[in-house]
Design a protein that fits this description.
By secondary structure, the chain is mainly α. It contains 1 helix and no strands. The termini are far apart.
C-alpha cells in the first residue's frame, strides 16, 4: 500500500511535532488548524447561497 499513511505514521508525526513545539504550542496549533478548517467549511457552504441569490436578480 504505497502512498497511504497508516496509524503508526500519524503517531510518529504527532510525536515529532509534540517534541518540536511542546505541549502548549501543540495544543494552540491544533486549535488554530481546527478553527481554520471550520471557517473554510462555513465559507464553502455560504458560497452556493451567494451564487443562488445573484442568479435570481
Amino acid at each position: 500500500m504505497e502512498g497511504k499513511i497508516g496509524i503508526w505514521e500519524i503517531l510518529l508525526i504527532v510525536g515529532i511535532a509534540l517534541l518540536l513545539f511542546g505541549p502548549s504550542k501543540f495544543a494552540s496549533l491544533g486549535k488554530s488548524i481546527g478553527e481554520g478548517l471550520r471557517n473554510f467549511k462555513s465559507a464553502m457552504k455560504e458560497e452556493p447561497a451567494k451564487k443562488d441569490e445573484s442568479n435570481k436578480s
